[in-house]
Write a structure and sequence with these properties.
The structure is a single chain. The chain has 127 residues and is an alpha+beta fold. Helix content is 30%, strand content 17%. It is built from four helices and five strands. A five-stranded mixed beta sheet has the order 1-2-4-3-5, covered by helices on one side. Strand 3 and strand 4 form a beta hairpin. Helix 2 packs across helix 4. It starts with 8 loop residues before the first helix and ends with a strand.
Amino acid sequence: MAVSEHFKHHELVCRCGCGRNEMDENFLEMLEDLRAWVGKPIKLSSAFRCPEYNNKISATGQSGPHTTGLAVDIQVYGVDAYDFIYGAFRVGFTGIGIKQKGSLGGRFIHLDYLAEPDYPRPRVWTY
C-alpha cells in the first residue's frame, strides 16, 4: 500500500512489529520534495517509531522526533550523502544528523522537521 508516490506503508511503519505508522503528511511531502530534488530513491532505515520502541533504541526516550512522525533516518553514504544533505537544507528540514563513519550499512542521515523553543533551528550534528 502506497502512502505517497514513492513511499509504501511497510517503509514507514514502526520496526518493533506493532504496525503503527503515524507519519505526518506534510513531512512526507517534504520527503517527496527531497527525492525529486536529488533525483534518486530514498532508502529509509527508520521512520515512525512507537514510544515504547523508541525508548528501547534511542536516547530520546518515549517522546523523540520519530514518535511524532516528523523524522526519518536515510541509509546513504558517499557522494549520495552529500547530495541528500544539500537537498535537505534546500527543502527545509530543520534537523540533520549525520553518521558517516563505520560500516557502509550503518551510515545514515537523520532528517527531522521540528520547532524547539530551547534549541535554535536549523541544527546539524554528527553521531
